[in-house]
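Tip: read the tokens left to right.
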């Protein structure tokens, strides 16, 4: 059996060259197999893990021990002190590339040592302060032979500034600029400071510097927008341009059929959002004109939705320009939420909102995101595709305090009615399928699942005979449309005799 070593050594064992006794002990330990040499003066008592892994997880201790006073800087500081692949960038008293072990290379740049406001790391290592890091990354460098550049790209700097400003506000940008000016004066980095000064001024609207990052341009655009959402709109539009969406011809043609269809669409659209009435009670205050027995505000939500569907001005009206789209959004929302003044009818939200883990578009970016999102609509030639796109656009931006889902479905169905295609009704039993489809596209970028969900709902809707209220009701009942249980499934409706 192997014998237990008389002495064990730490994972990182620093052996100063001046300590001859310790150096001799380290040499003996290596010969006896109780330690391994990483570099001159640096050993490890870990006999199992690869040296690269050992160095990476003890990076600060290695840097502090071998190169005291070195500062993790440039790209490495931008990444929070982590290597970029195999490469670490640091500022030291000389310029040199040093291989710590296979897979870990330190690129030293001769420059200033740590300042008082630089960040102290464990084991006497340092990292550039935030303003110093931004100045460093304003220097010009290029990648070479598979080695990344010492600095990150201009786009990355712009996006970091944007994200930080979103979290900390304009006052932080001003403070950053002031601190960077002091550092630049001490280090002689006037060129770097001028680049950073112009960039910050552009983000604050006081300079005319050209921005490279789409994120930064989106925030300083005439209509500032949420770039991640617009990228999602581009992705869905591209999918809808290449994948044919099934066409189902409209079924509600007569005046009575349109009335009945509008009622059931409004009823289910509100039920999805938690406005629950028995269908016969809803019929009494929507179709029969009787005052609601209870919950008048909830009742008006259904009435308002019904009015927007039945009114020919809205039923098949589709906007042609971004401004018209935004005005129509606000007009429809004002009608829908007229009895809920606390929900600011017709006005875009003023506070951020979320649903579960999904954060919707920030209030100051709503108008611009709607504007830029609508511009993609014209690139989708198929009306069914445009319908799916418009619902996603409105629901993803979530422009209002309440009523976003209902408004989104109204815009979808207006596109379908304008093309004389069947409108989409989302019955109660299909609610979880509907929400799953929405989550699939929002969280997982699964455009196909979203489109399949809508296509199935439209296929269901076009089987309904709305010419007589009683016939449509029986069909819906036979299809489990009103069922709220988790086990129930939507089935295609059948004609009742």
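Filled-in amino acids:
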């Amino acid at each position: 059996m192997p014998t237990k070593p008389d002495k064990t050594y730490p994972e990182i064992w620093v052996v100063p060259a001046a300590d001859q006794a310790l150096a001799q002990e380290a040499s003996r330990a290596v010969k006896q197999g109780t330690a391994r040499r990483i570099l001159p003066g640096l050993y490890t008592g870990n006999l199992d893990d690869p040296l690269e892994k050992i160095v990476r997880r003890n990076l600060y201790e290695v840097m502090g021990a071998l190169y005291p006073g070195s500062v993790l800087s440039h790209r490495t500081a931008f990444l929070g002190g982590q290597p970029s692949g195999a490469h670490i960038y640091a500022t030291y008293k000389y310029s040199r590339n040093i291989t710590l072990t296979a897979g870990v290379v330190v690129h030293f740049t001769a420059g200033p040592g740590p300042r008082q406001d630089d960040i102290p790391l464990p084991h006497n290592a340092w990292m550039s302060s935030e303003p110093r890091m931004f100045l460093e990354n304003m220097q010009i460098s290029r990648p070479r032979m598979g080695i990344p550049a010492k600095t990150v790209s201009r786009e990355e700097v712009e996006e970091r500034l944007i994200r930080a400003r979103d979290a900390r506000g304009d006052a932080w940008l001003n403070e950053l600029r002031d601190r960077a000016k002091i550092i630049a004066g001490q280090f002689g980095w006037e060129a770097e400071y001028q680049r950073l000064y112009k960039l910050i001024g552009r983000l604050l609207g006081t300079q005319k510097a050209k921005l490279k990052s789409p994120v930064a341009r989106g925030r300083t655009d005439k209509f500032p927008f949420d770039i991640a959402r617009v990228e999602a709109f581009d992705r869905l539009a591209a999918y809808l341009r290449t994948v044919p969406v099934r066409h189902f011809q409209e079924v509600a043609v007569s005046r009575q059929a349109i009335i009945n269809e509008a009622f059931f669409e409004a009823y289910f659209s509100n039920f999805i959002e938690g406005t629950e009435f028995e269908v016969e009670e809803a019929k009494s205050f929507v179709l029969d004109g009787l005052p609601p027995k209870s919950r008048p505000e909830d009742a008006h939500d259904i009435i308002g939705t019904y009015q927007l569907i039945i009114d020919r001005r809205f039923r098949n009206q589709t906007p042609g320009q971004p401004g018209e789209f935004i005005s129509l959004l606000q007009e429809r929302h004002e009608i829908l939420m007229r009895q809920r003044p606390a929900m600011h009818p017709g006005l875009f939200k003023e506070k951020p909102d979320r649903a579960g883990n999904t954060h919707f578009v920030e209030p100051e970016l709503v108008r611009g995101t709607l504007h830029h999102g609508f511009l993609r609509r014209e690139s989708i030639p198929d009306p069914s595709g445009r319908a799916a796109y418009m619902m996603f656009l409105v629901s993803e931006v979530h422009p209002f305090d309440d009523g976003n889902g209902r408004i989104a479905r109204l815009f979808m169905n207006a596109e379908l009615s304008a093309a004389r295609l069947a409108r989409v009704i989302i019955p109660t039993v299909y609610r979880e399928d509907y929400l799953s489809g929405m989550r699939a596209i929002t969280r997982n970028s699964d455009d196909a699942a979203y489109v399949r969900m809508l296509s199935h709902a439209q296929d269901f809707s076009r089987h309904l005979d709305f010419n007589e209220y009683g016939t449509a009701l029986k069909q819906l009942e036979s299809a489990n449309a009103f069922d709220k249980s988790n086990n129930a499934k939507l089935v295609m409706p059948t004609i009742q005799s």
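The chain has 21 helices and eleven strands. The two ends are 88 Å apart (CA to CA).
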